[in-house]
Amino acid sequence: MNFAVTRSVFESYYYDPRFSPSLVQQELVEAGWLGRKSGRGFFAYGEGAARAVADTEAAQAGSLGISLSGGVTGSEALRLRLEQAGVKVARGPALQVSDGRTAAETGTAMLDLALDYATATRVAVAFPEGWEAEHRAGVVAALQAAGFAVSVLRDLPGLAVLRTVAMLINEASDAVHFGVATRADVDLAMRKGVNYPLGPLEWGERLGPGFVRQALEHIGAYYGEGRYRVSPGLR
Predict the structure, then answer these.
(1) Is residue 61 part of a domain?
(2) What's the pLDDT band for 181 if we cut at 50, 70, 90?
């Protein structure tokens, strides 16, 4: 159903590349892997199916020192949590809150966005290829000391959460810009309709429109395609 809706939106917008359907999703549909209704999709469902478990880094030992950077809203809560755990945040291997660039581009470890770093139980991080093992272990150890389970992702722009949230904010901005709905209606629909913790525009205000725009521009520059084109409403 989701793929059919995505394709319908793509056609309705005259094949605007920003709404291109996912090829991976198309392959799943063609294979008959329709999720719970067929017993298999991205994950296996049904009786006896093994539940998917997030990859988690093993406990690491380190000097508990990192150089933390990144000015996204909420990063001060992260800094405070690390400091309270005894982590020195002004020295050590570099960790940056993601701004849409890759770890390879910045030469630092990149930390994915979290709704609230003060209460999050898990964070995701990516490392530049060839980074020294002791620097990688040091970043993981510092985050673990602050009580985070740590998952390591491939080094892709925007990682998982930031890329998703930035795209949601962008599309919501477009809907308001073109008069599809009001800001309040968009946020209410997404909170009540799909149980988002924040409406996308509310989330955008919290992060800062400039930060979201910059993240989309970084991701778009990496891929060189129209999917990440910034909405006039967000600009």
Answers:
(1) no
(2) very high
